[in-house]
Hints:
By secondary structure, the chain is an alpha/beta fold. It has three helices and six strands, in the order αββαββββα. The chain is 28% helix and 32% strand.
Amino acid sequence: xxxxxxxxxxxxxxxxxxxxxxxxxxxxxxxxxxxxxxxxxxxxxxxxxxxxxxxxxxxxxxxxxxxxxxxxxxxxxxxxxxxxxxxxxxxxxxxxxxxxxxxxxxxxxxxxxxxxxxxxxxxxxxxxxxxxxxxxxxxxxxxxxxxxxxxxxxx
Length: 155
């Protein structure tokens, strides 16, 4: 027996690494891809009677999204009046909330659009689009998705 020989205990590392990799892959892939698009319309509401709308952003920085909503509504055949004091001149008011997050790049994760009665601000219809990083859409696509779902129009 040599002075330099020693017996190293064998540890079964391979099964532990395999378990770790399987669990890691499951965790990483389970919650990263969420894709949700919904719309609800009050049962008493007839959206076909709406011809004129006003898009009102809650925040001044939301002008780009307001413009996208304005353009999409016009392309769908609606008349859109801009400005804060137009509520008495329209059939409905459009409000929205956009949520942005950072994941290597900044992107819109969620958009909610609400069609409201102009005098009482009662919500007549609500649409929502939620897309995480792996299923992200451009702001234009999210506006189109929400408004198509609200007004039940196909692309």
